[in-house]
Amino acid sequence: MSMRVTRVRIFLFIVALVLVAAGGTYYWWHMAHAVPAVVYQTPQEANVYVRFDMEAYDKITANYWQKVADADLAALYQLSLQKAEGTTTLPVLATKDRTGVAAMLGTAMAEATSTVAEKSLALNVVTIALYNLAPAGRDSLLAQAQEVALRNEVANVNPSTNLYNAIGLATTSSVEAVQSAYAATKAALAASTSPAAKAELQKAAYAAEVLTNTNDKALYDQAHIEPTVFPHIIGHTLYLDISQISPTTLQEFVQAVDTASTTPGLDSMILDLRGNIGGALDFAPAFLGLFIGQNQYAFDFFHQGNYLPQRTTEPEFTELARYRDIALLTDNMTQSTAEIVTAMFKRFNLGHVVGGTTRGWGTVENTTPLTTVIDPSASYALLLVQYITLRDDGQPIEGRGVDPNVNISDKNWQQELPTYFRSQSLISALEQEAPNPPLK
Fold it and tell me: What is residue 217's predicted lDDT score, i.e. its pLDDT?
């Protein structure tokens, strides 16, 4: 073999090695930087609208207060899809499980006429399924604006109102300016007997009450939070109307009790929870702690077959020791966290309940965000009942409510009061206030 041929072969061999090496380098670089293929639980979830509905399916399974069998949730989705499509024929559900639901939804989305129709169908299926979870109407799908509104409601913030406007002032005016403006507003409206003028005067009086109280004004100026605790002294009884439970209610309660500490002779307390729609749940273990101390058993949550004990979170407030007799006023609109408080006071014999059976709204709802994006301009979350709460006798509050010790619908309810209370001041105050609306 000639030297020339040998050199050519060597050259070609080197070129081949370079190409192989270059190809290998490209292969490994490509593998290192390639975007991994997305793998979904079912093929149908490659469709974003199916994936949205199935994420909701999974989060219901994980977070809903009751264990839901796969077959039951699949059947609920089947009925929800039928309702969302507006047909009289049930969609085909090949298997009553997660896989069957995804296949059923995949078929429905493939038959939709547009992405707008797919989005609408996806939202309606989840909305209908949530509405029909027990207790009916308690679970829902929230858009971002609805979630913000819900959080404002729990925090007792109403962005659409301004108390200063009720007396014709600019925001954060001084206490002196509030007093002067209210006097002028009162003088202008007091002479009128029209319902509209009376309503305006009532709003102005409430605004002046809030904005001339140093603590209430500070809360309102800082966070637009209106007061939830309204204290009054009736004889030797400290009366506290707790109209709602918000993140500031515990602080307001402590301030009211602390202010009353300079009033001699107080020996009893009324906690008026009538019309209280509840609110921030962490209030209940914190509030009980003020009476019995920190890290004590408070109540149970019930979630998917398990009892979850909750403990008190605040130390004992010694100023409360003077109130040997405590009464709670309730009615059929006392609900949620206010019902938990009522049940706790009965269970620990801290106070006795006068009024009517509470509403029986014994669920605890939490929001769970959905991460699947079906609209770049919108986000969604599930509002799910995560726990149910229990009465003092261990039965669910939901649908039952908490029963009073003294029911004022009974003919001789006043005669029952001495059975539960020793303070004559408290008995007199209950006889006076229980038949009437809460004091503000």
Answer: 80
DSSP string, 140-207: EEEEHHHHHHHHHHHTTB-TT--GGGGGT--TT--HHHHHHHHHHHHHHHHT--SHHHHHHHHHHHHH
Sorted by sequence, the CB contacts under 8 Å of residue 244 that are 6+ apart come out as 156, 228, 276, 277, 278, 279
User: Are 361 and 398 contacting, i.e. CB atoms less than 8 angstroms apart?
Assistant: yes
* pLDDT range class, residue 35, cuts 50, 70, 90: low
231-246: per-residue pLDDT in tens?
999 999 999 999 999 8
157-223 and 228-365+385-440 in the same fold: no
Enumerate the domain spans of the chain: 43-133, 157-223, 228-365+385-440
Contacts for 145 with CB less than 8 Å, ≥ 6 apart: none
What single-letter amino acid sits at 49?
Y
Identify whether the C-beta of residue 227 lies closer than 8 Å to the C-beta of residue 210.
Answer: yes
Query: Per-residue pLDDT tens for 287-303?
Result: 999 999 999 999 999 99
SS3 at position 296: coil
Find the DSSP H helices in 224-308. 249-260, 283-292
CATH of domain 157-223: 1.10.287.110
Q: How many CB atoms lie within 10 A of CB 234?
A: 17
- Which fold is adopted by the domain 228-365+385-440? 2-enoyl-CoA Hydratase; Chain A, domain 1 (3.90.226)
Single pTM value for the model: 0.79
Phi/psi class of residue 137: alpha, beta or left (left: φ > 0; alpha: ψ in -120 to 50)? Answer: left
